[in-house]
Write a structure and sequence with these properties.
Elements: H1 7-18, H2 25-50, H3 57-69, E1 72-73, H4 74-81, H5 85-97, E2 101-105, E3 113-117, H6 119-139, H7 145-173
Antiparallel strand pairs: 1-3, 2-3
Helix pairs in contact: 2-6, 3-4, 3-5, 4-5
């Protein structure tokens, strides 16, 4: 991207900065490249196929989750989309205003809200996803099918490591303490 350092330049600078620091370089490179790849793909998709439908990445992911899972509780949609319930509230409100998403009270628990796609939301996703998938093919264009499968499986293993063992690891790093909740609008102290 114009005005940004290339991945090669960033790797060279990190190597110079870290010099003789004893770190696990391969693991650092893997995690750094997961982040870089996710950012590059997100920006590309937002600035190409999603822009034409006036959707942000987050709005698309919310629509995708509800499209795939069907009517779902907001807490589950937020979890699957990787966003806070507060962020989901704003995104859902916008999508509802646009006539793409429907909010309904839970039939047995008045504290819960259910989300589902409207007919317009279903039509949009049915029309949009093939174009989105064409861009998925574009961003993985330097990989063959076997490399795509290998990459997908390797990333799946990263996700499973965090899902299955992450809480225990985080607790150990906190010496068994529960995480301190963040106060709204404030960053944790360094």
């Amino acid at each position: 991207m114009p005005g940004q350092r290339s991945i090669t330049e960033a790797e060279r600078l990190a190597s110079e900065k870290l010099g003789g620091v004893p770190i696990r370089r391969e693991q650092m490179a893997a995690v750094a490249n997961i982040y870089r790849a996710a950012s590059a793909v997100r920006q590309h998709l937002e600035n190409s196929v999603l822009r034409g439908s006036d959707l942000t990445w987050t709005a698309f992911v919310v629509l995708w989750v509800v499209w795939i899972w069907g009517e779902s509780e907001t807490r589950h949609v937020a979890e699957e989309a990787g966003i806070s319930k507060g962020t989901l509230t704003g995104v859902a409100r916008t999508l509802q205003t646009r006539g793409l998403l429907r909010r309904a009270d839970h039939p047995t628990d008045g504290r819960l809200v259910l989300l589902s796609l409207t007919d317009e939301g279903e039509e949009l996703m049915g029309r949009l996803f093939p174009r989105f998938n064409e861009e998925e093919a574009f961003v993985t264009g330097r990989l063959d099918a076997e490399e795509c499968r290998g990459l997908a499986e390797a990333l799946r293993q990263v996700v499973l490591q965090v899902e299955e063992d992450g809480e225990e690891r985080r607790r150990a790093l906190r010496d068994g303490a529960d995480p301190t909740p963040r106060r709204s609008g404030r960053r944790p102290r360094a």
